[in-house]
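The authors assume throughout that readers already know how a fold can be written as discrete tokens. The format is easy to grasp once an entry is in front of the reader. For illustration, here is how one protein appears when written out as sequence plus structure tokens:
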Amino acid sequence: MGQGKYAKEDAGGGSVFVLLCILVLIVGIVAAAGMVMAVLNYNRGGEAPININVDGSDSGGLGGGNAGYSNGDGGDIDTSWIQRQSGNHPHYDDTVWSFLNGNNDNRVSYLDRKTRQHRGHFVDVINEVCQIAGKNCEIVHGNWRDCYFDGFPQRALLGRWWDGCMGFSISADRIRSVKFSTSTTKATRPVLLTRRGNPSGVNADNLNGIKIGILAGWWADANCIFRVTGYDIRDDQVIEYDQDANLNTLVAGLDGGEVDAIFVSGALPRASDGSLELVREFEPCLLGGDSLMMRKDSLLKNWWDPAFNKLVNSRAYREICNDIDDPAAHGSKPGSSAADICVNL
């Protein structure tokens, strides 16, 4: 009988034990579910914002690729352009860097009439720099106005059509909105020109009443006139020629009496027919020479400048500078000499 009593008590105790185990299991499941919900809420970014670094990585600890970058609509933000610029993303070993090279029809930049390919000093520099840096580069034909015009960067640069635009001089106005590589040429001096014989009696020390022609979009503008002469020229004294105009258009304005003088880059008159007379050559109003222009957020400068500096100190640079004056290379085209262009001569 005693055995029967202990057996009943054991059975009762066993039931209580089972109930306790079930209760503990339920509490554990609830706690685990709470932890899972907390983790999911954390990964949704409520308390851990993701900071995109300049090299394309994130400082939120969420791994590689675009993981964790949300556009608010459930999709991922395309951050490939950030990773692309860093030059070290595994998926962009074959990145093509594209550079606009406009057709200046002079020694630094022109289209070969037979091959229809870009040639000139700028092309030689781009090819050598990209080879030194180990980058895959392409020279793109386009309109320079799509890079920068009338004081502002334009659609091609802002829209990332191209990574950089070659041949833009570094000016105080431009650096407010774009970034430049180190100068690839010497800074050009602006010049004031008039018709041979100076029939209008143009005097660089007194521009009062003188009408001056300039090229729209060029750095040799009214602001540059003020910097180099100290004369705050009036709007009605400046005739700004169309963005597609060239030196011949300005010469026509002189011949027609529309303007008394023209204010241009010192590189341009060397392409004229000799009908112009130099009134004065001024000190540069630029901060640097012709360079590679890029967006403010571009990392292109990080690899371009070191590679260009290596090029300047190499035999290859001396050879491409010699090509500027060599008629068998670029010397048959109009334009400045190697001494006026190359930064170390």
User: Anything to note?
Assistant: The chain is about 30% helix and 15% strand. The CA atoms of residues 222 and 235 lie 9 Å apart. Residues 1-11, 38-93 have pLDDT under 50 and may be disordered.
